[in-house]
Design a protein that fits this description.
There is one protein chain. By secondary structure, the protein is α+β, with helices and mostly antiparallel strands. Helix content is about 15%, strand content about 30%. It has 5 helices and 17 strands. The protein has helices spanning about 170-175, 180-185, 210-220, 290-295, 310-325; strands at about 1-5, 10-20, 30, 35-45, 60-65, 95-100, 120-135, 140-150, 225-230, 235-240, 245-250, 260-270, 275-280, 285-290, 300-305, 330-335, 350-355. An 8-stranded antiparallel β-sheet has the order 1-4-5-8-7-6-2-3, with no helix packed on it. The protein has a 3-stranded mixed β-sheet with strand order 14-13-15, with helices on one face. Strand 13 and strand 14 form a beta hairpin. The chain is globular. The two termini are about 40 Å apart. The model is unreliable at about 1-10 (pLDDT under 50).
């Protein structure tokens, strides 16, 4: 999660728009609108793990406040303003970057207080939502919501004619994603699609007349996989963490490293994401975690999908979910500074949290 205000001391966020030209095609260049940005809301990118649900993927979003005194963010066709938008505002691409700077720019080499002596790191790319536009007349401040490019899946239909039931899920994932509305903004490559359970479906009739989001949600759950976007590419992989340790966070009492944890909140034992009794609607398929049931009681989850109808496949899927969610796992929210080391961390990267608790006795 990134919480920001622009600019932020020597370190700063920058915001760029890529708008449509009059012909309805994206212009080739990004336009820097940072000078008009007054605030960015929190940005959260992660797996959608609502309480008592199995997380698949989450569409990130952020709200931006802009000064519109010059009318640059007015709608298309406003004769009283010189708007950035020639064709439409909706789906304008938005790029948010971050610059690290340990010292201010030097006179003679850069513009003091404007330029910074560091590279820009991409933090987020998304799409402007036109119907979220709100303007305050007195202050001339406008608000926009920017949604993740994953929201394209909500507005795109599955091309059912190109699907074959004998293909494994990895091929079907590729075929439903590899269409113009998606590939205009994202790279879809077969090498990036590696679901955990890749056994062919028994039927694909349920995928007809569905949006990509609906199909992806069901397929990702059944294959015990997650989807996210990295470097403009769609990635589908198992829920497994990386094999190697990517980073260690240290608390104030750790003797092993310099403190880099700001705060730890919402620590819990993960009971709200415990599923130890798994069944399949209209099937005898069933898998349980007896040790967990004895300790925590029954936490039931029933599946309902026509993509897999063979009993052995249903049993395997339930086993995969049981192995992932059959036991309680501690959860927490950790706040740390946004640095070169933390900004490269990805979803499901393995990290350590070294946060010893000091106990005082009278």
């Amino acid at each position: 999660m990134i919480r920001s205000s622009v600019p932020l001391g020597l370190n700063q966020f920058k915001v760029y728009f890529k708008t449509f030209g009059a012909d309805g095609e994206y212009l080739p260049e990004w336009t820097d609108v940072t000078t008009y940005v007054l605030n960015l809301s929190e940005l959260e990118i992660g797996i959608d793990s609502s309480e008592y649900q199995l997380g698949v993927f989450k569409s990130p979003n952020v709200t931006i406040k802009l000064s519109n005194r010059t009318g640059l963010f007015n709608d298309v066709g406003d004769i009283n303003a010189r708007s950035y938008f020639e064709f439409k505002r909706d789906d304008t691409q938005v790029l948010i970057t971050y610059q690290f700077a340990s010292e201010p720019a030097q006179c003679g080499a850069a513009i003091c207080g404007v330029d910074v002596l560091s590279d820009e790191i991409e933090v987020f790319k998304g799409l402007l939502v036109d119907d979220s536009f709100r303007q305050q007349s007195l202050s001339e401040i406008v608000d926009f919501k920017i949604i993740g490019r994953e929201n394209l899946f909500n507005r795109t239909e599955v091309d059912f004619s190109g699907l074959t039931v004998t293909d494994p899920p990895s091929i079907i994932f590729y075929n439903i994603l590899n269409q113009g509305k998606i590939t205009e903004l994202l790279t879809v490559s077969q090498s990036n699609i590696n679901p955990f359970y890749d056994v062919p479906f028994d039927s694909i009739a349920d995928l007809e007349n569905r949006t990509l989001r609906e199909a992806l949600d069901e397929m990702l759950l059944l294959t015990n996989s997650v989807l996210y976007i990295e470097n403009d590419a769609v990635i589908i992989k198992s829920r497994e963490e990386t094999s190697d340790l990517k980073f260690t966070f240290y608390g104030q009492a750790s003797p092993r490293g310099i403190e880099n944890i700001i705060d730890i909140t919402n620590f819990n034992n993960g009971a709200h994401r415990l599923f130890n009794f798994l069944t399949w609607e209209d099937s005898t398929a069933k898998r349980t975690e007896p040790t967990s049931i004895e300790t925590n009681g029954v936490h039931k989850k029933e599946f309902n999908s026509e993509l897999y109808t063979e009993l052995s496949k249903q049993q395997t899927i339930l086993e995969n979910i049981r192995d992932e969610f059959g036991l309680k796992r501690d959860e927490l929210e950790l706040r740390a500074r946004f640095t070169y080391s933390t900004q490269v961390l990805k979803i499901l990267d393995k990290v350590n949290v070294d946060y010893p608790t000091l106990v005082y006795t009278d």
